[in-house]
Specification:
The chain has about 260 residues and is an alpha/beta fold. The protein has one domain: Rossmann fold. Helices cover about 40% and strands about 15% of the residues. Strands 3-2-1-4-5-6-7 form a seven-stranded parallel sheet, with helices on both faces. Strand 1, helix 1 and strand 2 form a beta-alpha-beta unit. Helix 1 crosses helix 7, helix 3 packs parallel to helix 4 and helix 4 packs parallel to helix 5. The longest helix has 22 residues. The protein is globular. The N and C termini lie far apart (about 45 Å).
Amino acid sequence: MGLLDGKKGLIFGVANERSIAWGIAQALHAEGADLGFSYASPVEKYVCPLAQSLGSRLTEACDVARDDEIQAVFEKARQVYGTIDILVHSIGFAKREELDGSFLNTTREGFHLALDISAYSFTALVKEAAPMMNPGGSILTLTYYGSQKVMPNYNVMGVAKAALEASVRYLAYDLGERDIRVNAISAGPIRTLAAAGVSGFKTYYKAFKDVVPLQRHITIQDVGKTALWLCSDLASAVTGEVVYVDGGFNILGIGCAMV
C-alpha cells in the first residue's frame, strides 16, 4: 500500500527531467498517485515523454497568464479524473534582464510579468482546482529564501516569491474549513532551467555546500520526499506553512555575500 494510493493530482510546471516538479512527480507516483501534467508550450517535447513514463492520463499545455487556458485544463481534468486530491504549482518567471544587477532598475512591465506568472498564477490555479478537490486535499507551491532575505540578482523574483508565500497563508485560511491544506516548500539552490536565468547562480551554487549545515547540495529528490509528506495524510494538520528544504541555510546568521 502506497501513501497516496487512490489519490489523483495535477502538477503544473515540469519543464524537463531536472525540474523540481519532476522530482515531486516521481515521489508522488512512487507512492501510488495518479498524476496529470500541465506545462508551457515550448517544453512540450520534454514533458510529454516524462508524463507518459508515469502512465499519465492527462498532459495539457497551458499559459497560466490566460484564465481561459487555465479553465480549459481543469475542464479536461474534470472529464478525466472527476475530482482531485493534489495540486502542485511549480511555476515562476521573470525576464532575464530583471535578474541581473540592481532591483532598483526593475521595470513596470517586468514587475507585472513576474508577479503575474510567479505569484498570481497560483491563486488562479487554486480558484479552479478548489471546487473539484476532495476533503483532505493538499495544495503545494514552490518558493525560495530570496523572498525573506536579499539574494543578489534575485530581485523582482524575491518580491514575487514573497507575494506567493503570503498567498499560501490567505488561501490556507480560505480553504481550511473545507479540509484542504495549502503549503509551500522553500528549496535550496538546484540546477534547474529557471535557476540558470539568475545572474551569478553558478558561483552561488558551487559555494553553497561548503556553507550549509548538511554540507551538500539539495536535489529534486530531497524536495520530492518533503512534497510527498505534505501531500499525504502524514501532514494532515499542516497548512499555511513554508517548509525549508535547504540543508539548513535559512538558519544561518551570515551574509549572503559569503556564499
